[in-house]
Structures are given as structure tokens and as C-alpha cells.
Amino acid sequence: MKVIICGAGQVGYGIAERLSRENNDVSVIDTSAALIAYITETLDVRGYVGHGAHPDVLAKAGADQADMLIAVTLYDEVNIVACEVAHAIFNVPTKVARIRAQSYLAPEYSDLFSRENVPIDVTISPEIEVGRLVLRRISFPGATDVVRFADDRIAMVAIECMEDCPVVDTPLQQLSELFPDLHATVTGIFRDGKLIVPHSSDQLKTGDLAYVVCDRDHARRTLALFGHEEQEARRIIILGAGNIGYFVARTIEEQQPRMRVKLVESDRDRAVLVADKLNSTVVLHGSAMDQRILAQADVQEADLVVALTNNDQINILGSMLARRLGAKSTLVLINEPAYQDFAGAAGVDAYINPRAVTISRVLQHVRKGRIRSVYAVQNGMAEVIEAEALETSPLVGKALRELELPEGIRIGALYRDKAYVRPDGNTRIKAKDRVVLLAAAETVRDVEQLFRVSIQYF
Known about the structure:
The chain is α/β, with parallel strands linked by helices and 458 residues long. Helix content is 30%, strand content 26%. Helix 1 crosses helix 13, helix 5 packs across helix 8 and helix 5 packs across helix 13.
């Protein structure tokens, strides 16, 4: 696949890194010569210095032969115009744009980005995606990651196996026998820096991070089974009232009115603006690293401090300070991969990688076959994939134990007739079933083939 990426910042670099690793033909455009020099020196991509919305620059990058254009510059208007030019002049089949301003995404303008109006096939709002992930993490304390699939009926929950975890040293098959009514399947294990796609005879060990696919309504029970019975936070302090912080606070007001939220923002004008828009949230003007402001926010009584500023160092240091002042737990937004590696050692309880969320949204539209959703885990070591089985799929009609699935693929759940189905050896996949599975990076192409659209389908 030939892909053009407009924007060589952190998001653009992450997408280019992933797509080039899969042997796609990738070209990157940016106005910064330094960013283009860095990305071409470190990745197998072509780089072009120039404006991503200018026709001559897109022409140099080979837009006339491109299968996809991904516009992820810092400026919405540049991303929008780049997609329009790619459509009008070069007829690029798929256009993806990063849109940050929420006014563009308001429900009343839902038909703005359509082939008849502004020809953008996929809009990505990293702020909303990250905000939703933050809300899921708040709703499921004890999970290090939570993603939903199949109309929100199926969840993938990443759970750390602590020393008191009751299910360690127990074969996975035996877990199914001990808890036959638990709608959950362990699909992946991250251990000692490696991602393992387990067999039924494998066991969990202390220190493992288990990726469990489960019925959404069984997520809390699954966490409890792994020894995580943390209570949902009721007193929350959010550091940073940018797009993400405001989205999280507003959504909590709308959906969880019993939660008490305080918001700390360093920019006075932004603090006043957000305070006017929110109802029950207390907005404080001051630095996230000011002990007096944190004390004023009653940090010692906080169940959770969520650091969501656009500065990784402030997020990490602010959360460390909050913890020292008595906050029970912290959740930190960290963009820089180098900081993520030592977050735990620095005292951060949990962190969110916004780049992973954005890359996963892009991969959903890169994958071939009836792939409905994708979420990359452990920096692309594996993907949790939701795919629809067609009548021509080789998976349909056979018992799972009869399928010769490639090594590195484990099916976690089926979604049939709007209901969760727990898979076992006797389960048979039917046409139109949605299959949620975990696939190691090297088997993703096999998954695409298993769910490909055959010519016989038409």
C-alpha cells in the first residue's frame, strides 16, 4: 500500500514507523526540514519538505498513485485542505484527517465531512479518543488498559498479576473449568518484555500483564478474580483544562454526577473559559506543581489525580507531588516513549499513551478484509482485532478445535445477534459473527486473509 503522511510530529512519526515496518510504501511531508531529516534517517520512508496541502508537494510525494493520505499536522485547516486537494486533483481513495477543534465535530455538523461536502473518509480526534480512554480507566480501576469492541458489548482489559493474584500458576483451561459462568478469555500475556499468545495449558505468573477479552458486564468480576477490587474513584483532581481535561470533566458531569471533580489549569483565560462551561466542577487557576494549589484542591482526600497537561514533565512531576501529598492514585498522560519506560520507577501508578490510541484508529482503516476495529498493544507487538466473518471465510462452519489457526492468534470472544458468545473448542463461527481476537504482529496478515472478502461473496 502506498501511503502519504502529512505531518512528521509525534503522531505522524508513530504512524510512519508502524506502516513502514509492515513494508508499506510510505512518504512523509512536513514544513520542518529537521523533522524530515530525522524521520528519513531513522525509518525506511521517503521525506519531502513542504506544505502538505500544496498540490505540487503532494505531486512530488506521488499522490497520483497513493492509496491513502493521512493528514496529522497540528493544524486542522491544513489537514482538511490536504484531503480536499488529494481528492480533487489526485483522486486518492482514502483520506484520513486529524481534527482537534471540537466545533468541527459537533453533532449538528455531522454531515460536514462527507464525499458531497468536505471529502474526508475518516476523522480522528486524538483528544476525544484519549479522553474516552481516560474515562474507561476511571470506570475500571485496577485495569492498566481498557478498550471496547462490538458495539461496546465486549471489552479487552489488561490486568497486572500482582503477588496476591489468585489465578497465577493455574492452567488457563482449568480457569475455564473453575469459573464456567465467567465470560472471559485470556488472549495474551506480556512477560519479561515479550508478548506471548498463550495456549490453554499455559499459566500466568506473578508480574505478568494479562490481556483478557470479556463480556463488558463481566469486566469487574474478571478484575476481582485477578485480585483487583479497587473501588471506583469518587474524588478526582484533573491537572490541565485543555481539550482532554475539559472533555473528561464535562463527561463526568453528564454521566457520573456523584463524582466530585476539581480541575487545575495554569492559564487564567482558559481556566475562566472552562469554568463558565462547566456546572459542578470546581476550577482552580494555578500550576499543577504548586503545593498550595494542590492543597486548595484537597489533594490529600483525592482518590485519583489525572494529569492531562500537554507537558509530560509537568504531568509526571505533578502526579508525583500529588502522591506525596496524600493522593491515593495517579493516572498520567505521557507522549514521549522515553518517559513511559521509567514512569513506574518514578512513582506513576498508571499512564496513557495517546500516540497508541491514534495509531490504532489509523490501523483500523489500513487493514484489509472485514476488519471493524483495531487496537495495538505493547508498541505494536500485537493487535486486538474485531473482524466480521463472511460466508466465504475459512473460519465459518468448523469447530474451533478443528481450525488450523496460525501460531500467534487466539480468539477471545464472538459477538452474535447482539450478544456475547464465549468460545470453546466446540464453538462454530457463523457468517456475520464478529470475532474479537489477539494476533501477534507477525500474524496480522494471516488475520486479514481469514476475513478477506472473496470474489465468491459478490
